[in-house]
Amino acid sequence: MDALPGSGLRRSRRPVGEAAASPRSYASFPRGVGAMPYRGLRLCRQGGGLEAVPDPPCSVDLGRLRAVLEAAGVPVVDAKVLLIAATDPEVTISRAGRLLFKTAETERARSLLAWLTSLQPLAEPASPRGRAPRP
Amino acid sequence: MTRGAMLMSGGIDSPVALHYLLRQGHEMLAVHLDNRPFTDDTPLEKIVDHLQLLRSRYRQAIPLYVLPHGSTQVTLMRSTDRHVGCVLCRRFMWRGAERIAEREGATFLATGEALGQVASQTLSNMRSATASVRLPIVRPLIGFDKAEIEAVAKEIGTYGISTRPGVCCQAVPDKPATRSDLIQILREEEKVDVEQMLDDCVRRALVM
Fold this sequence. Notes:
Order of helices and strands of chain A: HEEHEEEEHH
Radius of gyration of chain B: 16 Å
Number of strands of chain A: 6
Strand content of chain A: 5-15%
Oligomer: heterodimer
Number of domains of chain B: 1
Largest sheet of chain A: 6 strands, antiparallel
CATH superfamily of chain B: HUPs
Order of helices and strands of chain B: EHEHEHHEHEHHHHE
CATH class of the domain at 33-123 in chain A: Alpha Beta
Strand order of the largest sheet of chain A: 1-2-6-5-4-3
Structural class of chain A: alpha+beta
Shape of chain B: globular
Distance between the termini of chain B: 23 Å
CATH architecture of the domain at 33-123 in chain A: 2-Layer Sandwich
Strand order of the largest sheet of chain B: 5-4-1-2-3-6
Helix content of chain A: 10-25%
């Protein structure tokens, strides 16, 4: 898996100090990986996973993404409105591009996010702006 | 002494409800609908720890039946209206618990539901969910507020287990219905083969 590029990337919306103060706030995270910017990583409501939300909102072609993941040897559960990819760590990908990594370890999630956003369906979302259309 | 089947989620409420039923002298078994891969391993790990604590406190075996529910969730998500997904999921949970209860000679079902706590626990959603089963349902915590439940959970030692970090259920829709119409629910359910899904789920159940 490629590491995130270290230059030419903007910082997350919230300052690092604020991120440290609240467990659910966004960790410092560079934006602009591929064409699909993510706001950052933050702990999910129950604190056991990390989520990344695309900013601005977009729509992902899950059928295409599933095919790409399976071609890369990743088993995928397709629940139509979301995919669950058996990567390490496991990740859930919604139609709106929202990702949930089943780990609370930022580095592991970051590294997987970098790989995922290098895949074409996430690097070039079907609808880069506005609400995700319903299938 | 009557025998009952308690639906366990790994949260704060269900072990407290189970504690009250055990304290009353009921013989209990526990049922968990395993939502993986829509969750991680933590709900099951928490339930195992909850039961270990309560088994030792009440000197009861409390067998745990784990029913795989992930494939049911996939079918529901693919075939039915996402807005009522939580109610449909609950209906399957109740039915799964009822199947186990009937097989094991339990005469009632129980949960840790308290009125109005979350989307699935509004009166209309509870009605829609429980209309799927025939056995009587006992809800020891129905009139409790969250603070009261948490206080008891701390007292009996289950609170620390319940509040361990975990992954939120990914099958929950963005905007779950807080009011549901049973007719609409039944219409949605007609889109899937309920009996076959239940048979499959119960056949693959594990006892721990």
